[in-house]
Amino acid sequence: MENKEKEVLLKVRGAKTYFPIKKGLLKRTVGYVKAVDDISLDVYRGETLGLVGESGCGKTTLGKSILQLVPITDGSMEYKFEDGYRNLRTLSRKEIDNARQKIQIVFQDPYSSLNPAFTIFGSLEDPLIKFGVKKKEDRIKKIGDLLEAVNLPRDYMTRYPNEFSGGQRQRIGIARALSVNPELIICDEAVSALDVSIQAQVLKLLNKLKEEYQLTYIFITHDLSVVEYLADRIAVMYLGRVVELTTSEELFANTLHPYTKALLSAIPVADVHQTKKRIPLQGDVPSPANPPSGCTFHPRCPEVCEKCKTERPMLEEYIIDGVSHFVSCHKVKEELAAKGILPVVKE
Q1: Residues spanned by the domain of 283
Q2: Is residue 107 part of a domain?
């Protein structure tokens, strides 16, 4: 089965990240925003895992939860350190700081992610000092090497953020993430704020750096055409849950979940002579503070059945033509069963 031989770098099991809703003078908790609601997945060393879905589906919260920038409410996130797997949720503050040498993030907005009062050298030297590069000449050399790695001149380290374009700032953000020699980089909408031509340059750069530095990426985006180019596997999220997860090729060639089908139908086609049927979704995304019963997608699903309204479908794995394919849908389960394809039974 695909990916079984690969090393699992990060194991996410039953992860929930809830934010309390407080009201009244006493600020009593009256409910919760379920931003991440029971997610389980593996991230393999050396792969690019794409996280896609509409705005508000919990992609960014999941990324920040992995970094422990947002504490998770329940579940576990086990990262493989030199001494074995350790749950990031149970690490001390000092241990989390050290763990962030292994796990870094590239933020969405290249303008707000750099301090305008610091030169590029000032922005990039703090993590180097924290993780042991004490001599200034060593930091100068390291930062110069990092700038060259992201296709920027070494002397740019003396300039301020306002002297750079959005694409250049994002390259600097990537250089900062690389500065502590991480293993896993979370790219949170890393190209969504950039022009299309600049997006292509940054995506090519990310691919090059992945090979040179032996990196693993979690690439968060709402743009399926971008993730098709970059990702090895794609996880589709809806309202805090993963509804489909498989390889990039399998997802585009054999889409199973109705929500994924609707997302793919919305991708623009460059050829004016090629027609593609758009699958419209009814209504807006429900509030994560009050998700629908049963399948959370059922109020908007064009293929809804009565079972969908009352019973929550589980994310189950199927082997289709030798490829692992996870999907959470009652109708898909029935259709696959009719073809003799049953869920994988976990030992």
Answers
A1: 8-46+57-91+237-338
A2: no
In a domain, 346, yes or no: no
Tell me the average pLDDT of the chain. Answer: 90
Summarize pLDDT for 160-182 with one digit per residue, the tens: 999 998 889 999 999 999 999 99
Q: What is the CATH number of the domain that holds 325?
A: 3.40.50.300
Residue 244 inside a domain? The answer is: yes
pTM greater than the 0.85 cutoff: yes
Listed as ranges, residues in the chain with pLDDT below 70 are 1-4, 269-276, 347
Here the contacts of 135-142 (C-beta below 8 Å, separation 24 or greater) are 142/179
pLDDT of 196-253, one tens digit each?
A: 888 888 899 999 999 999 999 999 998 888 888 899 999 999 999 999 999 999 999 9
pLDDT at residue number 201: 87
- Asked if 106 and 187 count as a contact pair (C-beta separation under 8 A), the reply is yes
- 85 found inside a domain: yes
Number of domains in the chain: 1
